[in-house]
Structures are given as C-alpha cells and as structure tokens.
Amino acid sequence: MSKKRKSKGKPSNPKSANLPKVVTHSNQDFWKDNWAAALIIFLLPFFFYWMSYSFGYVLDDTIVIVDNSFTKKGFSGIYEILTTESFAGYFGEQKNILIGGRYRPLSIVSFAIEYGIWGGNPSVSHFFNVLLYALSGILIFRLIFLLLPNWKDNQWFLGLAFITALLFVMHPIHTEVVANIKGRDEILALLFSLSALFGAVRYIDTGKIYYLVLTAISWLLAVLSKENGITWLLIIPMTIYYFRSFSMHRLGTLMGALGLMLVLYFGMRYNALDFIFSAGEGESTDIMNNPFYGISADKKFATIFYTWGVYLKLLFFPHPLTHDYYPYQIPILGFGDWRVLLSLIVNLGLGVYALLGIQKKSVVSYSILFYFITFSIVSNLVLNVGTTMNERFVYMPSLGFCLCLAFFITRWLPARLNENPRDINIISVGILILLLLGYGAKTLLRVPDWENALSLNSAAVKFSPNSARANCFMGVALYEELQVTTDPARKDFLLQESSYYISRALEIHPNYGSGLTMQSGILAEQYKKDNDIDKLLNGFASILNYRIELDFINQYIEYLIRGQNHQQKLFNFLYRIGYNQHYQTGNYSVALTYLNYAFQVDPSNKTIIQAIAQSYENLGNTAKANEFYQKLN
Fold first, then answer.
1. Furthest-apart CA atoms within the chain: distance in Å
2. Helix (H, G, I), strand (E, B) or coil at 182
3. Which of 38, 292, 607, 629 could be joined to 300 by an S-S link, Cβ 3.0–4.6 Å?
4. What pTM value is reported for the model?
5. Looking at the domain assignment, is residue 271 inside a domain?
C-alpha cells in the first residue's frame, strides 16, 4: 500500500524536464546499476516472438528476398542494391511505381549478407529481426535515462525509462514489423535513429568528436533503411531543446554534420533513382497503389484524417490488428461523418496541447510532438504512401505514445494522488499490470498469424472483410494449396473457397487486375473438372470486359488451340472478342491478338484474314498486311 508523506518533501514536479547538460553517470555505471531491467527488456522480445523462428516468407518478403535477384547474389549483389531503386532486383529493371520512389537499401543489404552466409533461410532472418528489435528496446531504455538522469526516485520497476521500453517491446501493433521479415527496414530506421539521438545528446553534453561521428553515421544509416529517418532532423534538435541546456555552437556543429549526411544521402538516392523525389511514372490509376484516385479532395482528406483517429485507437486499444487496410477496408468518408470530426478534434487537441507545452518543456508535449513529427511522412497528408494506412507506419511514432503513457503511469498519476515516487502506487501498478497482460496476450495471439500465407490471409479476411486485396490474397493462398493437394474432396473444397474469396474481391473492386487473373485461373480449374467449354469461355468474355487483355487467358487460349478440342466454340469466342469487340471498334492492336488466335483455329476463314490484313495496315505494318492480303488470293 502506498502512504502519504507530509513531512518528507513534495513529489518531484512532473511538468518540467529541463535538466542540467552534464550527465553524472558513465555508461559503465549505468549498465552495472540497471542490468536487471536491461536484461528483462532484452529478453522479452525473444519470449514473445520465438514462434516466428519457424515461420516462412510472406507478403513483400518475395520482393526483397525470395524473388530479388540482387539479394540472391549474396555479397556480390550489395553494390547493385546500393545503386538501384529498391524494387529493381525484383522487377529486373527500374520501375518508379510508387510516388516518391523507394530507396531503402540497408535492410536489403542485410538480407543479401544473410543469403550469402546461410542461403535462403527464413529462420535466420526472423531471428535477426527479433534481435534488432530487442536492441531497440535496450537503446530506448538507455536513451531515456540519458535524457532524464535525475528522474531516479521511482522504484526501478516503475521508472519512466524502464516502463517506456517495456511498453514498446510488448506493444502488439509492432507484430507486423517484427514477425514479417521485410519489416526490418522499420526496425533499422528506428534503431539507427535512436543511436543518432544518443550520440547527439552525448556530443552536446561532452563535446567529444566521436559522438558527433556516431550521430552522423547512425543517421545516414537510418535514412538508408527507410525515408522516415529524415524526420529525425527535427527530432534531434527538438530533443536537445527539451532536455538539455546547450550552446548554439555545438548545436550548429551537430546540425552541420547532419546536413552533410543529408547531402550524401541525396547524392546516393539520385544516383540510384535519377531523381530526389518525384511523382513516379504519372499518377497511378490503380487504387491498390493510389487509394485516393478518382475521389474528390474533400473526401480524400476526410478519409486521411479518419485514419489518424484509427491509428490512435490502435495504439490505445490494439484490437483488431490486420496487415491489410487496402480499399475499401477503410471506407471513403466525408467531413460530415462523425468519425472524421472526432478524429480531427482529438488530433487537433493533442497538437494544441503539445504546442502550449513547448515553453514548459513538458514530457507530454515532447511525446506528442515526437509522435506527430515521425508520423508526418507516412500520414498521407504530405506524401501519398500508396495505401490508406498500415500498422507498421506507426512503429516509429509509437515510441512517443509509449513515453507519454509511461509518464502518465509513473509520474503524472502519483503526483495527482500526492504520492512520493518511491512509494508503490497501487493504482499505477494496477493500470500497468492490466496493460502488460493485455499487450502480452494480444502479441502472443497475433504472432502466429504470420506463419505462412494461408494463416496470415485467414486472419486478414476475418478483420479486413472489406479489403479487395485481403480477399484476393486469401483466394490466392487457397488456390496455391489446391495445386499441391491430391485429395479430391479437399481439392473441391479449396476450389470452392478460393472462388468465393476471389468473387468477393471483385465485388469490392471489379477492375482488380490480380483478382481478374485469379478468376480466370479458377475458371480453368473448373473446366478441368467439368469440361464445360461454354462456362469457361463465357467467364473469359466477362473478364475481358474489364481487362481487354490478360496474360493468363491468352496462355490458356493457346493451350486450348493445341488441344484441338471444342474448336468451333473456341473460334466463335475468338471471333466475338477479336472481330466484333475490338476490330470493329478500331482497337486494332488488341484485335490482332485474338484474330491471330482465330486464324490458328481456322486458317481458311476469309473474314478473319481480311480483318488481320487491315489491322496490320491500319497500324502501319505494310509487310504483315501484304502477307495476309496474299492469303486472300
């Protein structure tokens, strides 16, 4: 039980954190005095994520590892990774698909190193993700002690630094980053940003050059991990303002060193992408890469502001969690929707509170500003990030949330209850226990979802039922299992389930390219079962109303032609698509694809030959036109 103390002084003031510039304890003393707390923070991630060691590759692991030609070269691929756009190793060429481009080589370099030593071993990659996450927790613990060296009047297990780090390593919203190997870009970006901040504060305190070098190199590594490290150009000086007395000379030197690293980063980025930042190859019309395409500006920004409220809700109450917020799991809303208005009020209120606390240098003000600054680059307000939201986007900003929550538990609440910080406040302890039990349970329940594509997408369609992407990916996972299953009853079940989810995806987004491709694959599987050519060709025709050409359909038509089955019905289908649908409407390039297929089925059909010849002529290919005109004679 806590006891009120009337004669032993007042509790320390939680509103002010403006501290002396000289830290009174060495690193050696710190680890000696705090080894138990540090050990707990370090080991907890291994406890919560040990299951991931047996997991495979999922989602974008394909892009950065499985099908990335540079990564699979091992050490010899590192130069290409550093000098090309981050998707080049996957696509085989430079493709600036996403707005602003992507240059995040450091995590891919780490994958190449792992590949060079251990080959394609996901267990190794999962282990290193957990290890780097654990080190991030340790660095958070050390850094907050460095920023607040005289806040040592709490019991160690209720200290601000320990509770902040504890909340961070246990927060369930981080499962996507840690359990998905590709999430290493987020882990490295924060780890090196924290290292840069640590070096910056030590340089301000001591003036030692090696801390300046540590800051500069760490920050460069952070932005080479992911672009959101750029926000620490504001975080670093803001932190020094809030928690240190400082000389402008040292601060100027520090920012000058970071400025040089910024120039170096931009040089590397320009060398790889041929631009610093750009809008990509025009505005994408695919809502899977540009979810706001085709909607009015007011609805775009109303939806963006709504997601800001969703992020805060998930930080406070991380349920349900999903990796998929693609269209239209997040609905398109207007400013008249109460959810948008509530989110605006809450976020504006937090912003005003933070600004009012700048002069007082309060920890709460700092925490809120930290959240908003690190969140800004992924908020969709400044830059379209290619999706409405993702839980991994608040991995870095969540540190501000954890610091603020830890402050509430360890400082604000005891002060309001007139408790001495060294007393064990039962209310604070109760809140902390409930939080940690909830966080721990949710993390343990969420991590297994990342085992493989089927488990992940099964969870996604449960909590993202309105996402075209989640439904499509679930259909794909079931379809892939169908290909390796030998039990007939199981195959029938998987085909039926896959068809359901693909149909649901196309119901949400009728022009979804991946969904249409999968639907054509399902039609082909059904044809293998029932040999119903009318059902197959009518299904293909329906798909081609949305996409005038689809590689899978073209390949299957070639298969049908070689099979010499149902040739008359196949010819009628090709005539309808090639001649009626495209040739007669002047779409000669697409018409030629199906007209040439029809010619293979019936080389004597004069109408088809005439149409092919005139199509080539209209496209300026005289030689090919004459070749077919001769066939008419």
1. 114
2. helix
3. 292
4. 0.91
5. no
